[in-house]
């Protein structure tokens, strides 16, 4: 992604969370949870900037970043920002 447009701010409004875990299968320490246990080994967080074309239905596959032009908002003008996240387990 390029973040080099003059007089523009870019916002990281999305995080990708990658959770690495040990399922506990075959281990004694998970017996009391009837197979619904595990141990988190690590969580990697990668921030991104995603311009959601339809905030009501955010699509995290977008490649365009959120661009906020420098300058003041006009009276009564609002700036709406959609924040999202995605999680993968390994």
UniProtKB/TrEMBL annotation:
Intracellular or extracellular location(s): Membrane
Membrane topology category: Multi-pass membrane protein
Top-level taxon in the UniProt lineage: Eukaryota
Similarity-based family: Belongs to the nonaspanin (TM9SF) (TC 9.A.2) family.
Transmembrane segments: none
GO cellular component: membrane
A Pfam family the protein falls into: EMP70
Keywords attached to this entry: Membrane, Signal, Transmembrane, Transmembrane helix
Name recorded for this polypeptide: Uncharacterized protein
Keyword field contains Transmembrane helix: yes
Biological source species: Timema cristinae (Walking stick)
InterPro entries linked to this entry: EMP70
């Amino acid at each position: 992604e390029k973040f080099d447009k003059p007089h523009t701010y870019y916002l990281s409004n999305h995080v990708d969370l990658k959770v690495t875990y040990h399922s506990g299968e075959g281990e004694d320490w998970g017996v009391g949870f009837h197979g619904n246990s595990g141990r988190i080994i690590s969580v990697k967080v990668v921030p991104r900037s995603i311009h959601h074309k339809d905030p009501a239905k955010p699509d995290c596959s977008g490649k365009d970043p959120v661009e906020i032009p420098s300058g003041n908002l006009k009276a009564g003008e609002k700036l709406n920002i959609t924040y999202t996240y995605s999680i993968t387990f390994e």
